[in-house]
Amino acid sequence: MSVLDLARPEIRAMQPYSSARMEASGGRILLNANESAWAPVGDAGQGCNRYPDPQPAALIDALAELYGVHHDQLLVGRGSDEAIDLLVRAFCRAGQDAIAIQPPTFGMYAVCARIQNAGVIEVPLSSSFTLDVDAVLAAITPAVKLVFVCTPNNPTGQPIPHGDIEHLAQALRGRALLVVDEAYLEFADADSVAGLIDRYDNLAVLRTLSKAWALAGARIGSLLANSEVIALLRRIMPPYPLPLPCVAAALEGLSAQGRASAFEHIRVVRAERSRMASALATLPGVREVLPSQANFLAVRFDDAGGVYQRLLAEGIVVRDVRRYPNLGDALRITIGTPEENARVLTVLQGAMA
C-alpha cells in the first residue's frame, strides 16, 4: 500500500496550477508572468519585481543538508503552520476524515482540522504529560488519516522517546500518516526522527527556523517526508509561498556565521533554562516547574492569574496557558536573555514577598 492511498483521491487526480515561474526555462527576457520590468525603489526590494522560485534551490540545499534528508523529501513553506494546513487539506475529506492529537498540545493542529471540517480525536497526555502510545493506537479509527505528536511538546516541554515514535509509525503504517512536530528540537537532548523517513513512508516531520534560528518574522518552515507526500503537497501549495527577503534572511541565518550565532544562543538558552527552573522552584507561590527540553518553562502557580497581571504591569508578557487541559494553574515563560530572565525573577520575588 502506498502512503498516497491515505490521501484524498480528488487531490491525487487534480491538475495542479502551473505557475509562470515554473514554466520559465532559463530565458533572460521574462515576459511570461505579467511582472513589472522595473525594480522597485530601494536596495531592499531588488529583485522583487519578479516572482520568486516556488522552492528556491539554494534554500532547499541548505535545509536538506541541515536536516539530513534528500532534496525531494523536503518542502519549504510559510512556517510549520502552512505545512500543517496542507497536510490536513490533502489527507482529510471534509465531514468524513479526522486527525488525532494529544492535548495539551499546539493548537494549530485542531484549528486546521476544524477549518477543513475534519474531526478531531483527542487522546490526552498523562497527568505527568507523557504520551500513552497504546491509548493513541486504541483511539485510531478508519476515519483518522493524520496523527500529530509534538516533541518536545508545546506547551509543556517534554520530549517523546524515539522508541515511542517508531512504535507509532510502525503500527500506523497503511492506516495513517504520523506527523512529528520538532519545532523545539534544537533545545532538546535528542536527535530528529527524520532518519526514519526512509524506513516509514507514513512518517512526516515538521521543522522550523522560527525558534532556535531566530527567524520567526521570516516565516520559514519545512516538512520532511516521503518524496510522494512532498510531491502531493506541492500540487496544492500556492505558487509563490516564499518572499525573496525571507529567503535571503534564511540563507544568511544558515550561513557559517549564522550557524555559529544560533548554536551559541542555543547554548545560552539551555543554560538559562536550567538556572530559571531551579530559581523558580524556590519561590513561594510556585507549585511546580514542569521539566522542559524546549526554550520555555511551564510553571504552576497558586495564583497564576495574579502573577500574569503582575508581570504584565511590569512590561513582561508571558503565555497564559490556563485554558489547556491539566494546566489550569500554569503560565508558560519563554527563556529570554540572561538580563530578561533576571528581571522576571526580580518581579516574581517582589510579587511573592
From TrEMBL:
Cofactor(s) named in the record: pyridoxal 5'-phosphate
Keyword list, A-Z: Amino-acid biosynthesis, Aminotransferase, Histidine biosynthesis, Pyridoxal phosphate, Transferase
Pathway(s): Amino-acid biosynthesis; L-histidine biosynthesis; L-histidine from 5-phospho-alpha-D-ribose 1-diphosphate: step 7/9
Subunit details: Homodimer.
Gene Ontology molecular function: histidinol-phosphate transaminase activity
Name of the protein described by the UniProt record: Histidinol-phosphate aminotransferase
N6-(pyridoxal phosphate)lysine: modified positions: 211
Family to which the UniProt record says this protein belongs: Belongs to the class-II pyridoxal-phosphate-dependent aminotransferase family. Histidinol-phosphate aminotransferase subfamily.
Stretch forming the signal peptide: none
Gene that produces this protein: hisC
Taxonomic superkingdom: Bacteria
